[in-house]
Automatic annotation (TrEMBL), chain A:
Phylogenetic lineage: Bacteria, Pseudomonadati, Pseudomonadota, Gammaproteobacteria, Chromatiales
UniProt-annotated location(s): Membrane
Gene3D superfamilies associated with the record: DsbB-like
Signal peptide segment: none
Protein origin, superkingdom: Bacteria
Bilayer topology annotation: Multi-pass membrane protein
Keywords attached to this entry: Membrane, Transmembrane, Transmembrane helix
Originating organism: Spiribacter onubensis
Protein name: Disulfide bond formation protein B
Chief place of localization: membrane
Amino acid sequence: MTDSLAKTLNALGLLAITIVLTFAFADQLAKDDLPCPLCLLQRAGFALAGFGLAMNILQGQRARHFALVILGAVTGFMVSVRQIFLHIAPSSPYGSGYGDTFMGLHFYTWAALLFGLIIIGSALMMIFDNGYKTDGTDKARNTVRPTGLALFAFGAFSLLVIANAGSTLLECELGLCADNPTAYEMLENS
Amino acid sequence: MKEFVSLFFNHSLDLKPLNRYNIGRFDLELLRENGLMMVLPFLLVAIALGLVYFEKPGAGYVVWGGGVLWTLWLLNVHATDKLNLNF
């Protein structure tokens, strides 16, 4: 895999995560559908996974950065699978599923699938990257500052993470969120 | 424990919805919640991104690690909370 292809793939991966976060954020704002605690933790999982790709963009592609991606994705995957298990029982007192659906699947189910894809994608990137075997180290190969698509992906991702921090602060203040939130706590209490 | 604390604070410690507390007064629940900030994972990732952007990747790793641990801690709290959270 060439350096430029690796950089493009990392930028596209980060952009994909940014689109997922944007979609969740748009649903929150457009439908006034406040994210539940587990939903927020899944967003945090995407942010944690995206950080590894941002490291690839800023510091050059390294195996350890993909390790961060996988660790973040596994964290998010655990959260989304917990939410699937909570709502998978047909006799659940909360009805079948929670929240909105997209193409027939609930958001947390999509999240679990996407976290799985992120893990598989990271593994494939490491399989097809021959940069780690040149001298036995995982030396960075493309440490130049990001430009173009990579810079856009990094900027958009950073903005989304900051926006999520602000939104979570508004919704939950400095504590846990309500189980099934209906209002922004900070705005209610002010 | 509840009875003991009730001697000093004029309110019940019965479990109540987690989002109901008043900023500005001493409250054991508030104290507990301040250790459970849901905003922290996002905040830590944002700080880590800033650190990496300004050429401090080592510190970025550490802060990011804090974000992962905090997320896992929050998941543990959610899964074991006495309020039996479902969402």
